[in-house]
Predict the 3D structure of the following.
Amino acid sequence: DKPAADVVDGWTVAYKAELKEAKLPKDWTVLSGDVEVKDGAIIMKGGDSDCQITLTNPKMPASVKVEFDGTLTGDKICDMSTSLNTGEDGFESGYLLQFAGGENKENRLRKVGDIIESTVVNKPLATAGKKHHVVAANDGGLISLTVDGKKVFEYKDAQPLKGNPHSQIGFSTFGSMLKIENLVVSKKDAPAAPASK
């Protein structure tokens, strides 16, 4: 009964944020901070600490791509960050692709809380009040962050997180307000085994 899924380069859209009500849909969990939905956008308010949300359903336990438009506002903007392959406790259990991390001084990848040093870069940085287009992906263990069409970092994980406790995505910000719009989450199935004749 559903329309055919959009498949691009093997990616199939698994979730599109249809935010018609003034509250987060039930598939989302707020782990910390204050969150509202306004004019079709998710507004995460970090206040003076962190704000983190996770999408509990649908599950995406392997290759996953999160694409959205994000805007950070506040006195000290920090973290327009996407988590991939996490569990119920959020980014500490998965990958955290940090854009504008460390009070907008660097971008970096964390795996289960640990910073992957080879991914730490100090540009591009976020501009307060500017809408940035972000793509965070785990493509078969190749973890990448692209902002406004430019690749920020890429990391090939020899032991990628996958499976049951690593099946959620989410977002976090710190000490600022993050507005998320046009959110689309896609997944990719593992390559099929060649068909035998």
In short: The first helix runs from residue 101 to 104.
